[in-house]
Amino acid sequence: MSDLPRFPPGFVFGAATASYQIEGAAHEDGRGPSIWDTYSHTPGRVANGDTGDVACDHYHRYPEDVALLRDLGVGSYRFSVAWPRIVPAGSGPVNPKGLDFYSRLVDALLAAGVEPAVTLYHWDLPQALEDRGGWRVRETAERFAEYTAVVAGHLGDRVPRWITLNEPWCSAFLGYSVGRHAPGAQEGRGALAAAHHLLVGHGLAVQALRAAGVREVGITLNLDHHLPATDSDADRAAVVRADTLHNLVWTEPILAGRYPDTEEETWGELITGQDFRRDGDLELIGRPLDFLGVNYYRPIVVADAPHREGDPALRVATDNRCTEVPMPGVRRTAMGWPVAPGTLADLLTDLKEQYGDALPPVHITENGSAEDDEVSPDGAVHDTDRVDYLRDHLTALRAAIDAGVDVRGYYVWSLLDNFEWAFGYGKRFGIVRVDYATERRVPKDSYHWYRRLIDAQGS
């Protein structure tokens, strides 16, 4: 461990999961259906027809998972609350059994010496709200604020760190433009409306959390570091459009109180006449935060490309005349993602340069890799590639801190192998292996490595 960097005193090491990916118990104790229940049960949407009905059965096995966290030595556990488990129809009656589950989980974590960090929305929108327009309409943002107030009122006395949204880019653009995530729509203006209403929902949720008196409030964004495929002007312009789509659409309203000045170049006709934007929205969205969560996995190499759809009325919001191309000369994970750890430091230092004092303290709320894990004859999982990935990204993170970025914590993704959205159970990100036939948990070499790293910080 001597070749690994030390982190500043008080730096938080954690692990992360998400409700639909691990909980299971999809039809128990009053939980309502979510858009991911509907999506995963639609033939052809998810690999192998997999669903989150059972997943890792965390709903019943959470004491075992809390014990894994205690033995791992993490200071914090980031989990998400399932909105349809709390308010089954998205609005209206609250389900006391859902609140009780998360209350028991929080109490178990605190008893184990692990601070809970709650994400309020990790993509499992109640299906009833999607039926009324989903994130395309402002009502969903308003219902999200009501749900936030319920959860904060029940758990706020014991949970110090709160995250409003996880990766709203995926909710808006993978869900409403690309169609690879629930609800599976392929739209232009609908996706842009969803992006804006997610931001409005964030702002309203911040209000509700402040009113509840919680200690720390933030949001988690999956920000990307974009590189041009060549030095051509066309490819560099494509990077600007990609950066607008992936990053600036979130960071500019949240951190700078403005919409990106590159949005017309990025979306053209789709951006004109956006009647879903209202006076006062930017002030609401840009309320000060205590931290910014950043999820980071890989860089994206971008090349110029023509529109895939000639008719603007049929064009999806992600058709920005740019396309991702392979990054040469690097290893790729089981997701096909390039491994280039130094780009994490580049992203963070660029953020600091761009936003200066407006950038709040940062937590890396997800970082990890899917690998082609194999169980050895000794019953262990010797996931050397994942260990290398984690070590090198943590080294890059320390470089960003040395460069002046205020980074306060790091959460490995993920504690458990789990339901990996449209990939089903075919991709494994966990530092703990889950045998889905038996639900048996087996810590991998990466789990033991991470534990040694955490132990070494105090020596």
From TrEMBL:
Annotated catalysed reactions: Hydrolysis of terminal, non-reducing beta-D-glucosyl residues with release of beta-D-glucose
Gene3D superfamilies: Glycosidases
One function term, GO molecular function aspect: beta-glucosidase activity
Pfam families named in the record: Glyco_hydro_1
EC number(s) per entry: 3.2.1.21
Assigned keywords, A-Z: Carbohydrate metabolism, Cellulose degradation, Glycosidase, Hydrolase, Polysaccharide degradation
NCBIfam families to which the protein is assigned, alphabetical: BGL
Homology family: Belongs to the glycosyl hydrolase 1 family.
Designated name of the protein: Beta-glucosidase
Origin species: Streptomyces werraensis
